[in-house]
Design a protein that fits this description.
The complex is a heterodimer of chains A (411) and B (215). Chain A has 411 residues and is of the alpha+beta class. Chain A folds into three domains: 189 residues, no CATH class; 82 residues; 118 residues, 2-Layer Sandwich (Heat Shock Protein 90). Chain A is built from twelve helices and five strands. The radius of gyration of chain A is 38 Å and the shape is elongated. Chain B is globular, with a radius of gyration of 17 Å. Classes of the chains: A alpha+beta (411), B alpha/beta (215). Chains A and B meet through helix 8 and helix 9 of A and helix 1 of B.
């Protein structure tokens, strides 16, 4: 259908285009599917009404029973989530409807189910009307046209135009029904205003998350690397004249690069989390089985880490194992950030709990501006699992102790 | 000739210290002061009268963008060289549009930093013409529509196009087979017709008005 082209046409031309369009007849198939469904429901209804009539049930009782029996089953069937997808696919292929945001899937919310149910009932009503037009009006019309020709009776010539009128009327009703369901399909089957708002909000949230990550990279890694370049360049320039400056520059370069790596680690972690959340894929998340490689990687980043494990951490509920890994990871990141080395990490499996300890020497005067962010992350994980956490200075050491409850023995 | 007086503005003291070492290593350049934000920068520029201000864009309180605008508004103002971590920072183009004479990436080599200060101070050629064009293209439409250029002579038009390509006065003179002094007078008349303070501003006006296409 090309409205732009049709607007210049006469009404007759438009009618011709419509009658010649394959789409007009494809739509009839959709409407007739409704007729078939009506027939199926109707058989049940007729059986019931027929037996009640022959049992001479009074009219009010008949209506009180028959109306719910006729109305309730289609309405209930329309509420089945899959109906939305089936109807939407049929509407796309037969009616030629194009839904914004792609083919609607099964209904996921009650408003969607209610709208689908309304659509299903509408489909049945259209099918009923088309069925009446084709199964009753068309045979009547043909009979009316044929009758005067096969009969000697005079004065019934007007049966012919009346019959032609009935045929045209039946075709017109079917075409109008096809157009009406096509116009209503996007409204009842497609995303509602609420659905689309929701989708937009999600998209905006993803975008702002990306902006946040970009800003984070800009502020942390970009800043640190600029500092590295400027200090290193300056050191090269004054190498022969100002050795004290060179010493200070090297120290600044080392510290800035280390901070940048830690920040990069964090941002990359966020990106990875976002990616797996986006694709909905459940790739294996790191758990305590990967603890050794985490410790190795941290050592390579310049932190002296020792790890002791008591008990069988392999036989841990998956969620505890995953969260424990993240807790150790955040503890190590904190130690890297605050420069406390060596770090002692101790895991011990007890009868009803897993205890994680991280101990490192306090390094006075090297407090980061961002102190506490890692701790908050640990706190949240511990809270989710219903565990306990203590953290703080213990003499000249900094000590984190986390206790996560384990379910009782159940092998 | 006396040394070019430079004021360093950056909220990170280690960046300032590094730049100071790089600049002071050259006999013709001299750091006369440092400031940690835009407000300090304006006060320091007033009392120290530097020739060039190396200005970080993202700073607390008054940022480099606002400070550039305030500094450029005065007559006899120093030239501003904007320092930035990334080229595709929206602030950079805004700072150029606000009156900065050029910008420099913080990751530039020490020799580039020194050369950039000299170029901006001399004002005889455009710093990083390709980058300025990229920035102007990226910000096409984001800056308020500027009126077209006033009527230029054919010669002035040619000179403006060559300026946009980053040519120095001497190079333009060679290209057009003119004397350097003639080119200088064309440039001076261009700047006064366009009502801008230096070539960077002139070239940005040329891009924004569409006089020089942003391919």
């Amino acid at each position: 259908m090309l409205p732009a082209r049709m607007s210049g046409m006469s009404a007759l031309g438009r009618l011709r285009t419509m009658l010649l369009s394959a789409r007009t007849y494809m739509r009839q198939i959709y409407v007739l599917l409704g007729s078939a469904l009506v027939l199926a429901f109707g058989l049940v209804d007729l059986g019931l009404v027929g037996s009640m009539v022959s049992a001479e049930v009074s009219m009010p009782v008949l209506l009180a029973v028959a109306i719910p029996v006729v109305v309730v089953p289609p309405v209930l069937l329309g509420l089945v989530p899959a109906v939305r997808q089936v109807e939407a696919v049929a509407a796309e292929s037969l009616l030629g409807v194009e839904f914004v945001d792609g083919t609607p899937g099964p209904a996921t919310t009650w408003p969607q189910r209610r709208r689908t149910s309304a659509w299903f009932v509408l489909h049945l009503v259209a099918g009923l009307l088309a069925g009446v037009a084709l199964a009753i009006v068309v045979p009547l019309g043909i009979t009316a046209i044929v009758r005067p020709l096969a009969s000697d009776k005079s004065g019934i010539w007007w049966y012919v135009p009346a019959g032609v009128g009935m045929l045209i009327g039946a075709v017109a009703v079917c075409i109008v029904l096809g157009a009406v369901v096509t116009a209503l399909a996007p409204r009842l089957l497609g995303p509602s205003v609420d659905d689309r708002l929701h989708a937009l909000e999600q998209r905006a949230a993803r975008l702002s998350e990306r902006t946040r990550l970009a800003r984070e990279l800009h502020d942390s890694v970009g800043h640190a690397l600029s500092l590295v370049v400027v200090q290193a360049g300056a050191a090269r320039k004054v190498r022969d004249t100002d050795p004290t400056f060179v010493d200070g520059a090297l120290e600044a370069v080392e510290a800035a690069a280390r901070t940048a790596l830690t920040d990069l680690d964090q941002v990359l972690g966020l990106l990875r989390d976002e990616e797996s959340a986006d694709s909905g894929e459940h790739r294996p998340v790191a758990d305590l089985a990967q603890l050794d490689s985490l410790v190795l990687a941290t050592r390579r980043a310049g932190l002296d880490v020792s790890l002791t494990v008591e008990g069988e951490v392999e036989r841990m509920p998956a969620v505890v194992s995953r969260e424990s890994y993240r807790i150790v990871q955040e503890a190590l990141t904190n130690a890297l950030r605050h420069g406390g080395s060596p770090v002692l990490i101790r895991l011990s499996v007890q009868t009803e709990a897993l205890v994680i300890e991280a101990i490192n020497p306090l390094s006075p005067g090297r407090r980061s501006r961002r102190a506490g962010r890692g701790l908050r992350g640990i706190q949240e994980r511990v809270a989710v699992l219903g565990g306990d956490m203590t953290a703080g200075a213990d003499d000249d050491r900094w000590r984190l102790r986390v206790q996560l409850p384990l379910p009782g023995e159940e092998t | 000739m006396s040394a070019i007086r430079v004021l360093l503005v950056d909220d990170e003291s280690l960046i300032r210290a590094g730049l100071r070492a790089i600049i002071d290593a050259e006999p013709d350049l001299e750091v006369v002061g440092e400031a940690a934000d835009g407000a300090e920068a304006i006060a320091a520029a007033r009392s120290l009268r530097p020739d060039v201000v190396c200005m970080d864009v993202r700073m607390p309180r008054i940022d480099g963008l606002e400070a550039t605008r305030l500094l450029s508004a005065r007559a006899e103002s120093p030239r501003v060289l904007v320092l930035t971590t990334f080229e595709n920072d929206d602030y950079v183009y805004e700072a150029l549009a606000a009156g900065a004479s050029g910008f420099l990436l913080k990751r530039a080599a020490p020799e580039q930093v020194q050369a950039a200060i000299r170029t901006v101070h001399a004002g005889e050629s455009l710093l990083f013409p390709d980058a300025v064009r990229r920035l102007a293209r990226a910000h096409r439409g984001s800056v308020a529509q500027r009126p077209g250029l006033p009527t230029l002579t054919d010669r002035e038009g040619e000179v403006l196009r060559l300026m946009a390509r980053g040519m120095s006065n001497a190079e333009i003179a060679a290209e057009l087979v003119l004397g350097v002094e003639t080119v200088k007078s064309h440039v001076a008349s261009l700047l006064s017709k366009l009502d801008v303070r230096d070539r960077t501003q002139a070239v940005i006006r040329a891009y924004e008005s569409g006089f020089v296409p942003l391919r």
